[in-house]
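This part of the workshop introduces the protein records we will be handling. A record pairs a protein's sequence with a compact description of its fold. Backbone structure tokens are a discrete shorthand for how the chain folds in space. The question running through the whole workshop is how a given chain folds. The record below serves as our worked example for the rest of this section.
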Amino acid sequence: MAGPTNEYSAKGYAATSPDSGMAPFSFNRRGLRPNDVLIDITHCGICHSDLHTARNDWGRTIYPAVPGHEIVGTVSAVGDEANLHKIGDRVAIGCMVDACMECDHCEAGLEQYCKNGMTGTYNGKDRQDESITFGGYSDRIVCREDFVLKVPEALSSDMAAPLLCAGITTYSPLRQWNIGEGSKVAVAGLGGLGHMGVKLAAAMGAHVTVLSRSEDKRADAKALGAQDFLITTDKDAMRSAAGRFDMVLNTIPVRHDVAPYLHLLKIDGVQVIVGMIDKMPELHSGILLGRKILTGSGIGGLAETQEMLDFCARHGIVPEIETIRMDTINEAYDRMEASDVKYRFVIDMATLG
């Protein structure tokens, strides 16, 4: 603990401009409020959103920016009124650290869709003092206890980290659209999100097909649990698959035409966009006349995220990861941009020093 303000000194990595890259950064975390916990971070996953924020690709980054919203660590201090977690507990933080908890969305367990705006784990604005939030590329973090999740004993800390974004982002739409035994699910894109979508849908009992532009990922798709593989550039194969699927889980993170995937849906089937796409090509409304649904989904609420962690622990569902040193983050960003990772990077925070 440092100084008369009761703040905690912290160290991490930050971007200071769109082209600065990530570099060592020292800063202070706030002192504990009554319902806060202090967490010593052991692992933090890397998400495409981290890269986009660091480089200001979305035009809303506030510098300096400390990314990271797939956080696992150990509770090292608790506020005077905190009672959900105790010192020594292994815990996790995902993409949000606060919300109003009073609107009808929050009361329904949809804190991620808080009508008054949820507070992002990084590049967000604290609800009380309006300071900018710093994420998990650091040695410690202070967070409201309600937004801290319990890591099941069966999940290792490095494997658990990507579940806080890649896991819940794919789990939530599968649960909300009641995917289960007998469901037919197609997963478009086999990256950080897509590989988790395949594993989770298969564990729920669905028949899973991976959609890909080429043969390159057929073996990986089968190894991850997919029963079928469909090459989207094969017009005859796509035509024969029309009307086959209950859901297309679209994890593709770049601009693309979603119309071909709508043709694959049954009546009342749904294509759920979970990748961050800045713009989609125009659609002819006739595609939707067969009661095809096109929608999007973000992360899950707090209860659903805990449910996801527990589900993964019960079924042995973990991401495919490559653990890296903190000082190799810039190389990791370049590799991630080039799709040179299978399938998620995780930073070992023991290397931060």
Q: What stands out?
A: The chain has two domains: 8-165+320-351, 167-296. Residues 327 and 352 are 7 Å apart (CA to CA). Residues 1-5 have pLDDT under 50 and may be disordered.
